[in-house]
Amino acid sequence: MTKIFAVGLLVLVSASPQANLPTSEKVAGAAAEELLGRAPEKAAMLQLAGPDTDYLAFSGCATAECGNSYGIWLYVRSGPAYQKVWSNRLAGHLGALRFDILKGDTLPSLLFERLEGGSAAATTELSLYSVQLKRLFSIEIDEDWSTTPTPEMRERDAGAPNPRIRAVLKSWASELGLTKKVVQPPDLSDPRRMEQAWVTDNGHRKSGVIKLRFYDDLPPSYNAANFGYRPRLLTSDEITDGPFIWRAFFKAGVVGNDARTHRYFMVYLPADRYDWIRKLSVRGQWLYMSDDCFSPRSYTEDRYQIRDEDCTWSLRYNKGSHVLEIGSFDQYFRQIAESPRSPGSRRPGVARKEQFSDLDYVRSWVRREPRSATAHLVLGGMLLNSDRAHLDEAIAELRLAALLDPEMADAHMTLAAALMRKGEKQEALKEAEIGHDLWLRGR
């Protein structure tokens, strides 16, 4: 009986010249680049002794714009040409990528680690594609940064569970330290516990004197580079105020940085992640914060270029007394409209602005611009938040918005909320995944 020997090669490949790489790595990178049409992000090759058979896996972007074309591919070569065995779209950032031949198998398995997360939480997904079984198996480990992380693990695989492969993935998770419970109590002086320290010291208050803690660095979860994202994707707003830099983070808190001491401190953390601060502004000793902004420009241009007058201002922090105040502070930014305001919503992508608070006006906007994805999105969002009788109409408008502009993250995310409310959980999760991916990558 012929023995099969496997050698797994993990190769990190970039667009830079590869003249100094070992021959085996050059082969893997060159083969992946030829198949992908551009330099891959990562590649791994498995060369089997005996028959002339090579397995090649790589990740990267199939198009220059990337977006939804970011994925992972697996090819096999038996003879002169490679044949595709399997591929899958990816969201997030790819970590480890390697081959292995499991005990009892004659064909290899591809193992890869996917990291996805940000300022609110993080998910590590460990996956195994079995060439022998032609199936993908995955486990996910989730962590929430505002609480002591006791990782929650769940399995994701189609078909009947496979105890052997489950054991392989759980063993890998254990090797990476992902299943270890954090020692209680947590060290609140650690930047990783900045959010938990805020909740411990201040609860979820919006008024009164707050306790500040100072740190030498931001939490790792606030650093977009840790997840392979562009920096702005985790920052909803950033302003400079003398020696201070104030940053509001997506689905997270508001943090100040004092350039004189190089220390970081949190001044606000929303109780609900969807109430994250969208806009910051300084007036004298007060840092004003808004979690309610809308402008049609935010859907069609850079979503961060929102003006002060596009927002409703209801929270402020005093830099001297460390007092948080909740109230109506619009008078400092624009004249308050005399007409009554719509209650609106905190959901992403759902507007609350005077000129769009009238349902009849938005319906007329849709009639004037029937091909406008933004118009259908705003109408769908308003219908979703009016009453349950309009739920089906809201879903229809949101479906049309996503159809007219498939790259509009807000349309998919708001549609997911509507579908979840109707009880269509599977389709809602699908739309949420699409919207989340688009949001992270930006348009």
Short descriptors:
443 residues; alpha+beta; Thrombin, subunit H; Serine Threonine Protein Phosphatase 5, Tetratricopeptide repeat; 3 domains; 5-stranded antiparallel beta sheet; 9 helices; 21 strands; globular
* CATH domain class of the largest domain: Mainly Beta
Number of DSSP-assigned strands = 21
Uncertain segments of ≥5 residues (pLDDT<50)?
A: 1-23, 296-303, 335-357
Compute the gyration radius: what is it? 25 Å
Give the distance, in angstroms, between the N- and C-terminal Cα atoms.
55 Å
Widest sheet, order of strands: 1-2-3-4-5
Strand content: 25-35%
List the secondary-structure elements in sequence, H or E: EHEEEEEEEEEHHEEEEEEEEHEEEHHHHH
Largest sheet: 5 strands, antiparallel
- Examine the secondary-structure arrangement and name the CATH architecture of the largest domain: Beta Barrel
Number of domains: 3
- Oligomer description: single chain
Helix count equals 9
Mean pLDDT over the full residue set: 76
> How much helicity do the residues have?
10-25%
What general form does the structure show? globular
Structural class: alpha+beta
Give the CATH topology of the largest domain: Thrombin, subunit H
